[in-house]
Predict the structure.
Amino acid sequence: MTVYGVLGTGTVGRALAGALAANGGEVRMGTRDVAATRARTEPERPGLPSFAEWLASNDAVHLTTFADAIVGADVLVNATSGMTSLDILAAAGADALDGKILIDIANPLDFSTGELRLTVAIDDSLGETIQRAYPGLRVVKALNMVTAAVMVDPRSVAGGEHTAFIAGNDDEAKAVVGELLRSFGWRDIQDLGDITAARGMEAYLVLWLRGMQTLGTPMFNVKLVR
Amino acid sequence: MTVYGVLGTGTVGRALAGALAANGGEVRMGTRDVAATRARTEPERPGLPSFAEWLASNDAVHLTTFADAIVGADVLVNATSGMTSLDILAAAGADALDGKILIDIANPLDFSTGELRLTVAIDDSLGETIQRAYPGLRVVKALNMVTAAVMVDPRSVAGGEHTAFIAGNDDEAKAVVGELLRSFGWRDIQDLGDITAARGMEAYLVLWLRGMQTLGTPMFNVKLVR
C-alpha cells in the first residue's frame, strides 16, 4: 500500500489527506508542532471545521511531524505555503527525500503584505527551486491551479470538463501522479513536459486570483481546447 | 463609420486589419517607415505572404505612419511588439490619444535573448503602463492570450467554445471591444474588471508559450468553466 506524506494542515492539506485516505491510502500528515496543531479547536474560518474536529472525523489520517511524515512516506504532497516549503523539506534532509515523488501543489505566494504576490516567477518557479535543492526528489507540479475542493473533486466544476496540468522531469513519477488525479475524477490531464513548465503553471495564479475576485468564487477552472 | 488605427504590420496587425476591413471598417495601418514597409516583398516566414503581397490583397487597408494612423482613428489596435508600444504611441502625442479606445493586444515580451521573456509582470503590466502614460486613453486589454489566427477567427479552435478575457477601466470602451469580438465570432467574453487585470492576462503568456511548445501548435485556447 502506498504511504502518503501530506505536508501541511491547511485547506489544501486536509483536502488531499482526506481524499487519499478515502482512496484507501495510508496518510501521514506532517506539521511543525503536533501538540499545537491538535490543540486547534477553533474554526479558522466561518464554516470550516477546526483542525481538531477535522482530524477526529478522518481517523485514517495520522498526524505527525514534518520529518516523520517525510521519512515514512512513498509519495509526498507539498501542501505547505510556498514561502515555507524549502524549510519544511529540509527538516527531513536530502537522504530521506531521495527517490521519493513530491506532488508540488504549493504556489510561491507571499501572504505577508495583504496582497498576494508571487515571489518567484517568469525565470524561475517554486517547483524548479525544490527540484534544484533536492535533485534526487522526483518533483511533479500539479493541482496548484485550482482551489482545494476542485483538486480532489474536479466533477464539482462543470461536471469535470476541464484540465489538470502537470509537469516534471520524471515520466514514471508523472504517470503515478496522473493515476492519482484520475482516481480523484480528473479526465483531462495535460503533461506540459519538464519541471520548468512550473513557471507557467505558477504564473497562471495571477490570472486565477483575478478570476476568483471577478467571479466571486474559487470554484472554477479552465479547459484546454484546440 | 468607425475608423480603426492598427499599429503594427506583423502577423497580429495583419490579422486585425484584415478582419476589421472585412467587417466594413475603414482601416489605417501604422508603420514606422511607410516606404520601407511597402518595399517588403520577401516572405518573412515560409508560407506567410510578403507584406507587399498582403497589402495588395487587402485594398481597404491604408498604410500610413504611426502618427497618422493614430490621429485619424477612433479605435486603436496596439499590435506592436510590447517593447516598442510606448515609443510608438508617443509618436502622435497625448492629445491625439485623448478619449480614444486602444485595444491592447501586445505582450511585453523581450525577443532579444532568443528565449521569450516577460519584461513586466506580477506587480505591473504593459496594459497598465500604457494606461498610466496616457490617462485620457481608454485602454482595453484583449486578445493577447491567443495566436493571431484565433483572435479574428475563434471558431477555428473547438468551434469557438472558449473564452476571450478583457479588462479595462472604461465600461463603455469595454462594451465597444466586446461587440467587436462578437463580430469576429467570440461568444464567451469574460470581463475581468479594471486594467490591473492585465497582469494576469499577460502573466498567462508564460503558460501559453509552454502550451504551444508542448502541443506543437498555437491553435489552442482555454475555456473558463465553473
Observations:
- The CA atoms of residues 114 and 155 of chain A lie 32 Å apart.
